[in-house]
Each structure stands twice: as structure tokens, then as C-alpha cells.
Design goal:
The chain has 315 residues and is mostly helical. The protein is built from 13 helices and 2 strands.
Length: 315
């Protein structure tokens, strides 16, 4: 009987076919990513680079010639007595005040609600929908509605307070600290439901066996929260805290619609001032420089927050 020869592929042929397969998979992945990458380049990268170029000029969109001034717009922001120094840093201070007032409540309140809704309670889905419902509304609806509700003279809130014996009209939108309380309170009411959903999803991802082990060791509800829930939520908490800080630092609509920056410019945030300089005063160069300074500040805060979260996770 004649022997049958069997062709065995060489190692070199197998390596080549493996590389070709990886190239095809990589090409397929990039083809799927191409629509997003194109949009990202057109609407994010290109405007960012163009904004840097604008910030180096005395740029008035109504003129055809824009004078190159280098880093003058940036140095003015750090030069006391310049045209933009005082107003810009005052608006940055207002942004910091709002962020400090709102972020703790935008993290703690949703966490508390998420922990409660994570229990086996009746109508849990209904309560989740109720808490999330305000977030569905746009900022224009929120601002206009609450402006009427909190009107110092004819607002519903002051009329209700008058019925229970508080006859003095509270200046919710025209004086501090009431204006800050209004802005922070409305923002918490509006956004807390969104953070709650994210935290609730994080709670669902914690292994139930960890709670059972803690219960066997005699841990109560408080001990379980500190030893199981919070460590299990660290990555989610880092994400929620960072995104909340960024969104609070970029607050515009609430202040613009509710207080108009009043009293005076006390509640005028950085984004409000940048928009006014760029769109109303036609100082696009200065406004672009302010935007990049704000971006750098927020980038540093985000990095610090992630580093702190990572260090606490390793401890």
C-alpha cells in the first residue's frame, strides 16, 4: 500500500496567516470607529485647534483682519488691572462657590437614594422614574419654571411660606446667599436622578456574597455600607464625582435664566462671562483664552480627583 503524504503548514505560513487575520480584525474595528472618529475630528479636534489660534489674536468676528498678539490674551488674565483680570477671576470665584455648594449634595443625595432603592421595596421602579423625571426636562424649562416659582414678589414659594406664617418675602433670586441656595437646590433637584441611576447600576454590580460574608461576621447595615458598599463603588464614585465637578463648573443655563448673574455679577459664572465677552462684546480672542484657562483648571482638578480615588483604592 502506498504511503499518503499529508501537507503540514509551516510555522512561517501560520504566522503570516495569523498576522493577516489580526490586520483584518484591526481594519474592521477602525471601519466601525470611522464615523465617530470623523465626527470627533471635525467637531472636537478642529474647533479646539482653531480656538487656540483665535486666542493668539485680537479677534473680532465683525472684522476681516485679526491682529496677532501672541500670548497677550493669556497674560492679561494674570495681570491685575487689565481689562479682563477682575471680571474673569470674579466669575471663576462664582463658579467655585457654585461647585462647592452643589457637588457634595449631587453625590451624597443620589448615593443615599440609590442605596434605598437597591433594597427590595415595593414600587421601586416607580420611585426610580419619579427621581429621574426632572432630568428629562431641559435647562430652559427648569430655569423658566423655577424663576416664576421663586419670584420674590409673586412667586408660589413665598406665597406658600406666607400661609405658614413666614410673611417676609425671601429674595430667592436677587440677593445672596439666597440666590446661591436657589441655584444649588434647583440643580440638585434636576440632576440628582441621573447620578442616582449610575450609582444604582454600580450597586447592582457588587457581589451579593460580600454582604452575606459581612453578615456572617456580624456586620450591621452601617458596617456593610462602609466596608462593602463604598469600596465596591469606588470606580463609579470616581466617575460620578468627576463628571459632576465638570458639569457644575460649566454651569450656565440655571444662572442665566434664574438670576441673570444677580445681584450685580455675584452669580455670574465663568461660562456666562466667557459667552458675554465672545458673543456680545465680540472679543473672541480673549474669550478663547479664558476658555483654555478654565479647561486647564478643570483638567488639573479631574486628575487630582482620579489620583485620590486610586490612592484610596490601594490603601
Amino acid at each position: 500500500m502506498a504511503d499518503t503524504a499529508v501537507a503540514v503548514p509551516s510555522a512561517r505560513t501560520s504566522t503570516r496567516s495569523g498576522r493577516a487575520g489580526r490586520r483584518r480584525r484591526t481594519l474592521t474595528a477602525y471601519l466601525f470607529l470611522a464615523p465617530f472618529l470623523i465626527l470627533f475630528l471635525v467637531f472636537v479636534v478642529t474647533p479646539a485647534v482653531w480656538g487656540v489660534w483665535i486666542s493668539l489674536h485680537s479677534w473680532n468676528p465683525l472684522l476681516t483682519f485679526h491682529r496677532f498678539i501672541g500670548l497677550q490674551n493669556y497674560t492679561d488674565l494674570f495681570t491685575p488691572g487689565s481689562v479682563t483680570f477682575g471680571d474673569f477671576w470674579q466669575s471663576m470665584g462664582a463658579t467655585a462657590i457654585f461647585t462647592i455648594l452643589s457637588v457634595p449634595f449631587l453625590v451624597i443625595v443620589p448615593l443615599f437614594i440609590a442605596v434605598l432603592l437597591n433594597q427590595r421595596i415595593r414600587a421601586g421602579g416607580l420611585f426610580r422614574g419619579i427621581f429621574f423625571a426632572p432630568y428629562v426636562l431641559g435647562v430652559a424649562v427648569i430655569g423658566v419654571a423655577w424663576r416664576y416659582l421663586l419670584d420674590p414678589q409673586n412667586g408660589v414659594v413665598n406665597n406658600l411660606l406666607d400661609l405658614v406664617g413666614i410673611t417676609q418675602n425671601i429674595p430667592w433670586t436677587v440677593d445672596v446667599p439666597w440666590a446661591w441656595i436657589s441655584l444649588a437646590g434647583i440643580t440638585v433637584w434636576w440632576v440628582a436622578g441621573f447620578n442616582m441611576v449610575i450609582l444604582l447600576a454600580g450597586l447592582k454590580g457588587i457581589n451579593a456574597e460580600l454582604y452575606e460574608a459581612a453578615a456572617i461576621d456580624g456586620a450591621g447595615a452601617t458596617r456593610k455600607f462602609w466596608s462593602v458598599t463604598l469600596p465596591g463603588l469606588r470606580p463609579v464614585m470616581a466617575f460620578v464625582t468627576t463628571t459632576t465637578i465638570l458639569s457644575s463648573a460649566n454651569m450656565f443655563g440655571q444662572s442665566y435664566l434664574l438670576t441673570k448673574g444677580a445681584p450685580g455679577t455675584t452669580t455670574r459664572t465663568a461660562i456666562m462671562y466667557i459667552a458675554n465677552e465672545g458673543l456680545s462684546q465680540n472679543q473672541m480672542g480673549a474669550a478663547s483664552a479664558m476658555s483654555y484657562i478654565l479647561f486647564l483648571v478643570l483638567a488639573v482638578i479631574s486628575i487630582i480627583n482620579f489620583r485620590l480615588q486610586a490612592r484610596s483604592a490601594n490603601d
